[in-house]
Design a protein that fits this description.
Layout lengths: L10 E2 L9 H12 L4 E5 L8 E7 L2 E7 L5 E5 L14 E3 L3 E3 L6 E3 L4 E3 L20 E5 L2 E5 L7 H13 L3 H4 L7 E10 L3 H9 L4 H4 L1 H6 L17 E2 L28 E7 L3 E6 L2 E11 L2 E10 L1 H5 L5 H21 L13 E2 L6 H12 L5
Antiparallel strand pairs: 1-18, 2-11, 3-4, 3-6, 4-5, 7-8, 8-9, 10-11, 12-17, 13-14, 14-15, 15-16, 16-17
Bound molecules: FE2/S2 (inorganic) cluster (FES) and fe (ii) ion.
């Protein structure tokens, strides 16, 4: 047996270069992040007309805002005159317009060009043609999803379909009323690792017994190394002594009203390709949005969402938040431990997947198919 033909229980991963090569990353930006639906902003963060956020989607900066009619709009963050970035802050609020800081071309919240110095001297300038370049927008689960493609893929199949495939039915996630929950806590992680390492890590639980003592304490079946994601519709059951999905197994907060008896005392994890992880437990929902910034760097915004009443009455969210914050820190440290080694000669042909990780190969095949023959 040679190193290039592993025994049947082991399957090859992607080669190390796929995690370090900026050319591969550029292809991923073009063919994955700029071509698919990208979960960008919590809609409630755009509280009123003129509130905005800027987000990196693939190679583009996108300006996401709320128009006067209350709808969410998104535009490439590029002035149509000579290309200045309209806004460089991560978030803020304007009253009525975005005014370019360079020569003061001014756009309204619908992206129309409404003013510019000496505009009267240019009667042939078609204002409609020089509005900001729009980006497709959808709202689901209380988030703003963007698509930079001219012709976006079907949202229902690609995004909602990912959840249905994992859970077996759409109603299951609807029970949590995710769109009406409120952000109780948000933590942003700046991870020095390739985004695919984060996806692979989220998909498997072979590492759970080694690095997640608190999580395994709450979900004892995870000690066996099989992720809940391996089985359609499966939610990992809380341990018999566990009272809640908290760092010490203590009682959490009030159960989300729509959650069924079947779903109670269970944890469901869902990956929505390419950059979203959803975690459902009876009293809260945890959503990760990844923003891949380079081959070796991924920013993750993680929201802990609770029922509005729980947040408003100031319930103690600490033990609930602390559990998955520790899981995140443990997972991201593991990914950062792998990232430098992706460039090693020892990993030039990649590593291997054990049987409880074999489903990750489908993710690798999906990435390769998106990238096309040039990447193989
Ligand atoms: S670049 Fe924006 S007004 Fe000139
Ligand atoms: Fe993990």
């Amino acid at each position: 047996m040679t190193a290039s033909s592993p025994p049947p229980s082991l399957i090859a991963t992607l080669p190390g270069g796929h995690y370090t090569d900026e050319r591969v990353f550029a292809l991923e930006q073009e063919r994955i992040f700029e071509s698919m639906w990208f979960c960008a902003v919590r809609a409630a963060d755009l509280g009123r007309p003129g509130a905005f956020r800027t987000v990196q989607v693939g190679r583009e900066s996108v300006l996401v805002t709320r128009a006067r009619d209350g709808s969410v709009r998104a535009f490439l963050n590029v002035c149509r005159h000579r290309g200045a970035r309209l806004r460089t802050e991560e978030s803020g609020e304007v009253r009525r317009t975005f005014r370019c800081p360079y020569h003061a071309w001014t756009y309204d919240l619908e992206g129309r060009l409404v003013a510019a110095p000496n505009l009267a001297a240019m009667p042939d300038l078609d204002r409609a043609a020089y509005g900001l370049v729009g980006v497709h927008v959808r709202e689901w689960l209380g988030y703003v999803w963007l698509c930079l493609a001219d012709d976006p893929p079907p949202f229902e199949a690609d995004v909602v379909g990912a959840v249905v495939t994992r859970l077996g039915e759409e109603g299951l996630i609807e029970n949590y009323g995710v769109g009406d929950l409120e952000v109780g806590r948000r933590i942003v992680y700046d991870v020095k690792a390739n985004w695919k390492l984060l996806v692979e890590n989220f998909m498997e639980c072979y590492h759970c017994a080694t690095i997640h003592p608190e999580l395994v304490g709450v979900l004892p079946e995870f000690a066996g190394g099989y992720a809940a994601q391996s089985f359609v519709g499966h939610g990992a059951r809380f341990g018999a002594e566990v009272r809640g999905f908290t760092v010490d197994g203590s009682q959490g907060v009030d159960r989300i009203p729509g959650v069924s008896e079947d779903q109670d005392r269970r944890y469901y994890a869902i990956t929505i390709r390419p950059q979203v992880f959803v975690n459902l437990v009876p009293d809260h929902v945890i959503i990760h949005r990844m923003f891949p910034l380079s081959a070796g760097r991924t920013v993750v915004e993680c929201d802990w969402l609770f029922h509005r009443d729980v947040v408003e009455r100031g319930a103690d969210l600490g033990p609930s938040v602390e559990l998955f914050h520790r899981v995140n820190a443990q997972d991201f440290a593991a990914c950062e431990r792998c990232q430098p080694a992706m460039a090693s000669r020892a990993y030039a042909r990649g590593g291997v997947l054990v049987p409880s990780e074999h489903h990750i190969r489908a993710f690798h095949d999906w990435v390769l198919a998106r990238l096309g023959p040039a990447s193989a």
